[in-house]
Amino acid sequence: MKIAVEEAFATRSLVGAWIKLLKDGVPGEAGLDQHLGRLITAKSGWGAQVTERLLDVGDLRLQQMDDCGVDMQVIAITAPGVQVFDADTASALAEEANDILAGAVDAHPTRFSGLAAIAPQAPRTAARELERALGLGLKGAMINSHTKGEYLDASAYRPILEAAEGLDLPIYLHPRPAPPAMMPPFSERHLEGSLWGFQTDTALHALRMIVTGVFDEFPGLRIVLGHLGEGLPFWLDRIDRLFARGRNATDAYPFWVCKRQPSEYFLDNFWLSSAGHNWDPAVRFTEEVVGEDRLMFAVDYPYEDGKQQVDQAAGVTLKNPDKFYELNAKRVFKLN
Ligand code: MN
Fold first, then answer.
1. Which of 150, 179, 220, 331 is deepest in the core (most CB within 10 A)?
2. CA of 129 to the centre of ligand 1 (A)
3. If you measure from the C-alpha of residue 202 to the centroid of ligand 1, how many angstroms do you get, rounded to a whole number?
4. How far apart are CA 234 and CA 259, in angstroms?
5. pTM above 0.85, yes or no
6. Is 31 helix (H, G, I), strand (E, B) or coil?
7. What is the pLDDT of residues 149-167, one digit of tens each?
């Protein structure tokens, strides 16, 4: 069985709200026009095709899955989700998206599974929505990196982390355009998207949570990163050494308060997917670093070509293909 765990969708209300936002101007955001505008306002070509596929959680998606041999998708709201709106708008759009996704899962329980959209702008409402989503049969939450320049290590988001840990639901931390302060050097050369910029912001997000001790406070918190861990497996050794040196040498790093080495949290609290990165040497390296129990297959539908990703993954020499394609996803997301 082949389960793909980072597969995107959108609702019509969300797309409508994004279009309005792009028209009105977006305070505290950057790069949305390049990232989002080119998709949702496209009349033809790749952007229009992606938008059509995002909006479908039925026959078109099933056909695409059949065409490339994906048995099940774990579906979640696409970036930047509801995180660009005011708290009330965001919470309402998240609830509606969760109802729609849960309906699609109910209609196709052997083909679709889903992660909840939540609005970090309203942390307590988001925590309650996570609980409601669990009741709807959803299997975790999707958070598209920062929320108006704030990351999940900020104390305001503790209710969300507490709820995720308490309900034992994983949070899938997915990329999105970086905050305005980080954006210009990327966007000046159009490198702000998934080609490069996305992973720098999302890896930063994960590292911020690690060094600030989020996983000491919430040892049961489970985070999923796509894109083979956003580059972090490649860096773990050096991160540990420089972290130890910096922390031992001086008290000049007051935010480096985690009790263990950064890699220990990465290997205990994180699971990874191969979305858009089913490249033999990279997948094998990642499996070597994090172990065969922590890596799951994904396509990144509809942004990636399912057939290309499936075919490419078929060429990877895995230690344990069953875990990669099926068993890890079933365990992480508690799929039936
Ligand atoms: Mn994705």
1. 179
2. 22
3. 12
4. 22
5. yes
6. coil
7. 999 999 999 999 999 999 9
